Amino acid sequence: EAKATGKANYVVFDCALRDKAKARLKIENEIRLAIEREEFSLLYQPIVSLESGRTESVEALIRWKNEDGELIEPEEFISIAEETGMIVPIGNWVLREACRQIAQWEETLGPLAPVCVHVNVSRRQLALPNFASFILETTQHYGVEPGRLHIEVTESMIMHDREASIAILCDLKELGFKIDIDDFGTGYSSLSCLHAFPIDVLKIDREFVSNLNHGQDFGALLHTIVALADNLNLKVVAEGIENTNQLTLIQALGCEFGQGYLFSKPLLPEDLEQFLRNDAARPPCHWDVSPIQT
Ligand code: C2E
Ligand code: MG
Ligand code: MG
Ligand code: MG
């Protein structure tokens, strides 16, 4: 009897595994087709100067609306796309689309156009031998100055293969691109070796921001990070600012830039245009007075 039950369990387990593998294969195939079907789009989230309250830059964030019209979050498909290598064509599309958008905003918004667009890249892309020349050609094709493109890499990505990462980031930097460390603070070990990397911006992980009022530690650590960034001449962006309480704490710590739902969720290009026009019409430093205007 015990044997029979054991067998039945195997069958159940087998089916669950098979279903999982099937679902996985399905999503892999869908990702493969999604580019041709033009199912990806980019949203843009404002990065705000905490001194002036103005939006100077935006981060491009990918969205996927599949064949059935379902919205799939990047968290659900980026890692699969990374494992299968599909992140390369997707990432190339993202870079092209971001450059096309910068050029278009230049026409539609003129002086109100975002100065910089921050683009997330994956480890696979960074490891491509022709990555730097691909980005350069893309910016040239759209007539975009390299300095308007920030390449966001994560701490864990560059710590994984330090020497190779330093080399490629130096190449990018030499071509005029800006380099951001995204989700900073999630791997503490790197604090001491930051100086080895040619970085322009530290983006503080939103975990820090959301934990700021839960005890002293996060505040003290953030204070240290901001001081270090200052020493290294890096700009600091605090991610995930959701309320004025967090904004006040972040400002008190000397953080220069912020990003988060308090200012705006990621927006469609046309909504971002409206946001920037509204922004320009308001007095500076209006966030503490009237948060969330969209
Ligand atoms: P990330 O680069 O750290 O982007 C910030 C994420 O935080 C975004 O999630 C954004 O919508 C979210 N966020 C912004 N403000 C707030 C806030 O106030 N509260 C909360 N709770 N969340 C906030 P999203 O768009 O879902 O993207 C998730 C991650 O997926 C990104 O994290 C990035 O690692 C990756 N990703 C997004 N687009 C791309 C892409 O084009 N290429 C690659 N390789 N990765 C991408
Ligand atoms: Mg990012
Ligand atoms: Mg981040
Ligand atoms: Mg992230």
From TrEMBL:
Residues 24-280 form the EAL domain. It comes from the Bacteria. This is Cyclic di-GMP phosphodiesterase Gmr. It comes from Rubripirellula lacrimiformis. The lineage of its organism: Bacteria, Pseudomonadati, Planctomycetota, Planctomycetia, Pirellulales.
